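Task: complex structure prediction.
Instruction: return structure tokens for all chains below.
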Amino acid sequence: MRRLALSLILLAGACVASPASANPPDTFGFGSRETAMGGAVAAETRGFAASYYNPAALARSRGLEVGIGYFRADHSLEMNGRDNGVDPVKGMNAGVVVPGTLLGIPFAFGIALHLPDDRISRVRALRQEQPRWELYDNRNQRLFLAANLAIEPVPWLWIGGGLSFMSSTRGRLDISGGANVFRPDDSRLRHEVDADLTAVRYPQGGVRVALGPRVALAAVYRGEFQLGLDLSAHLFGDISGLTTALYALQTRSINNFLPQQVVLGASWAVTDRLKTTFDATWIDWSAYVAPVARLDAVLDIPPPPSGWPSTVTPPTTPAPTRIAPLRMYDRVVPRVGVEWHALGERKNKGFLRAGYELAKSPIAAQNGATNYVDRDRHTISLGIGGRFEDLLPELPGALLLDGHVQLSELPTEATLKASPADLVGDYTAGGRILNVGITAGFAFEKKDAPSAPARGTR
Amino acid sequence: MNMQEPRLRRAALPSVIAVLSVLAACATTGAEGEGDRNLPTAGVGPFRELEAEEMKGLAPFVFEDPKALYREPAVLRDGGSTLLYAVARVDGKDVIVRTRALDDRTFFGTSGHFGQKPHIVLEPDKLWEQALSGPSVVRFRGDILLFYSGAEGIGLARSADGVSFRKEPGPIFSRDPVPGSWEPAAPRAPSVYVLPDGRLRMFYAAGPAVGEAESDDGIEWRRLRTGPVLAPAEPPSAGSLLPNERPPFDGASVGDPCVVTRTTPAGRFHVRVLYTGADATGATAIGLAARYGETGPLVRQPAPVYSVGQNEAAPALLELGDSSYVYVHQDRRDGNDTFVAIAAAFAPANMKLPPPGDFPDSP
Amino acid sequence: MMRGVLTLAVGAASLLVSVAAEASPEDLFGYGGRTSAMGATGVAHASGYESAWHNPALASTIRENKLTLGFGGAVFALDAVGAALPGRVSTQPARGITIGADIPIPFGGKLRDRVGIGLGFYTPTDVIVRGRVPYPETAQFPLLADRAQSLMIRGGLGADIGYGVRAGLGFAALAEIVGTVVAATDATGRVGTRVENQLVATYAPIFGLTWDVPGSSRLRVGASFRGTLDARFAVMVDGTNLSSIAIPLLNISGLAQYDPAQAALEIARVEHLNVLAFQLGYKKWSDFPGVLEPTVACSEGGAGACGLVPPSIDWRDTFVVRIGAEQGYELAPGVVLRGRGGGFFETSALPADVPASEAFDIPSKSVVTVPTRYFDGARIAVTTGVGLSLAKPLPPVDLDLFAQYHLVLSRTITSADGAGTVLSRGESSGHVKVFGLTAGVRF
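Output:
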């Protein structure tokens, strides 16, 4: 009773805090076992995947654990029945858990990394009217890097937390010289750059409570994060001897805004071989900042003394963008998972897994000028896994191999424009996403004391 | 240990190696991004001018002659080719000519098509006409109907083949006789379309605004409302414009309507009207106004869909499914001289066209 | 037309803000609370996470898990004195956080206690990376100040092969920018820029070997090689299809970070409480392409085939000599205090004569030559520090404190044009003060 009360207090405390961000793992999972269980693993995760799903669970590991995996998620997202070519998300997931004991308390340190094949991050500047799959087009094209610590102060309680890392940018560009518009190769231009990539660190934390040998509860917080882009540009030059041009601008925008999340989870070992899990994630989408740049510009191009040539259209200072607000709604995303120990005993075991997730679209209907396209997403996951112990005397521990297939369906619906003069007009949108991946890991047994100290200085 | 275990172990280690070997470029390729293919569009721009490598002759002019002064285009799809009807100056009179292109941009009889001229389909031979202008073509009950403007209103000519036309004797639509009507002059610049139930609808210019009328047979027309369906834009209220934001491009007049209908992907009947908008300085641009359904006022798009500062006017829209052309007349500079010619623009603006095809054998 | 060019500039700027900075602080100051106090030696004696920089082979000596957190900084006082020179060159101090992890791999059998991993992570506190590529006539120390402002991730795996030999390999990772800005009509048909700005990873390998000299229980020889680590920003700004006006293709590129390929050979006497090390190092700065790149990408021949071309500087390979020592005192059971000291001397990669650069003078509408005001000098550094190691019955904590003083030796650097006319002559000098504190917990 006292354990339960303390658990509830801790879980309640866990629910108060931090904002969170969406990451590629939010959409596609992290680790094949967890992905196959629908991501409903806040109370059940362990190993390197715990760095994402619940840092507290890092302390469940008793020996060094390393894991590495690869996945690819292909998008078949369509508007008006035609594929939009949304880039696949593919890359490596990896991590390490280093457990130990500190002052008699089990303790662990974990690092987790999702590294896309093609890039660390991508920024795209699009006009707000341009249709795009707002939650799939570019937001998942980035690195996820987190470092966490966890402790197990009492045998039924795990607490953990850490930081994830990303960056904002600010900078200044200067181009000067002479542009020859009749023979461009004869232009005499130089550039100067002064830019900073500033550190952004956002927190995550978690708690896991075992109510008994078969039931566990968990709560996780993930922090809000914004990738800001502040820049100024200055261009001053001569235009083929006709006139000079001065253009100065200041722009500010938010890219890749990731809202905060709170996850409540539970796991129940129904039998010795069957485990079920459930998660509910609240996502603070209503705090979303539209990714449209605010622009202030000054343009000064005196007309040539003899007037503009007939083939030249006199330039004008661009008008600022009237930014249409992007309305989004908070959502609760339920997830369920199941794992069945299907084969084997003792040293070699086989598992079958399945899961389901329902993520209703948080974006308000795009009836106005903007086109941040999104639809509800139903995701079904399946997976298999194996655990092989003591393969070699040199490998004291268990080899873990897991695979997953995840299919997301976004039912097609119509978007009706309020204005008949909208240049995009009514459209239908929907599609599916197929995510396939494998993960390999090794969980070493708890380390004995070294047989001999190394010849070093400590 | 059972017999399965050694096999499992042997399989497990290569599997690990396979996993490690799929570690790919690890964020090094910086591959090009996509996500902007086949984006939806209402099919009415914004348009970009054709470029030099997309056409014969001087871009963006597809039909030009410094003497004929081709203007006020109207287009009609005919199988695999595009028919273009336009006003031309021939022997001192304004007539309506017809030409054709196989690739929508290489028209028979343009100035680069040496020795060839388009076919004259209509000449002013009635007292009420004086000069012909504002052609509009539509297929109706097996015929091609050619509506046009004369001095006293709008006339009609029919054809089975689009080449030989028979005129109605008088104007089929004249100035509104009702006292106090909003129409300060005779209607002109008609654009006619067919409703799903077979009725005809016409948008027309009268003074600085656009009106709407309906007919069952193309001969007898009745006005649909007592006021214009599209009027010049209201001036902006004080302080409502952002810095560097310009006032409406169509605050002085709207005219030259060109209507094309469609059914949206969501199943709504969509009436889209391109028009010429002019501001107080006389500068023109091509605008868009539209509505859902068969009746009701037109809602305008605040920004023009085609604006190049060359006195562009009289749009004609050709829809080709995923893309569309707009044909306008605009100033064409030739040394120190300027004359009007028909130019073409294309949407979606980020799509490239293949090189131009050959001239057709006949107009 | 100008709107198009200026639109391009905006787009280019939005890409360039994500640029990585110049060379690494490890290359300037060393890495780790212990070895930084020992003249930045360590190829033959580094331990734990510090082996990820010095010599990954030494990761095989890791026996306990350990997590280290550190904080350090550097303050620059760099001077360029002469006509039209600022005197004190403005340079921001560098501050950064170090995170290190020592991870022994608990293989069994014949591999027991033979393999370890060292992970090192350095991030400046206020910026992850700084990219500064000023115009060449701006007085600057291109090889010093901004090189200290970069995030670095390093990892190394080491194995004890036997017969006194250890081998290791590792990597260093940086981010670089690739991108395109195409100013044309976008999908809505309006003139605008489509900006694609991507951070991609760039890697450099590091290999290391150590050999415990037979017949001596104390002597060890270490060798390491680090591949070139460079991070460019490369953004092509394309407005050629924007309008009827011909706009040149803009190559907004430059080298924001550069660590040259380098090799080091070190011999050390390594005992439980006593270390003495001597190192010779070589850095291949002659491969350094310079920070500047041409702005105009020519229609034939690409960037550099026309327009203003940055000066070609004869960067020189450098040598570095290091010495380091450590002496420990067991004050009580489980309490060891270590005093450290050392120093190094590194030659400068910048030649004394630097060619002038080209610029376009708007009032006269002509190309003029401007001086290239790059400054640098050989450095002598003195390092010192203390360390406190606690073990049972006390908490298993290691604390290390270090400080370094670098003196940039005075030298005269001139910049002359092709005819030999000296456009700038300046005296460069200065000093850098570096400090740091790390705390590690073994578990």
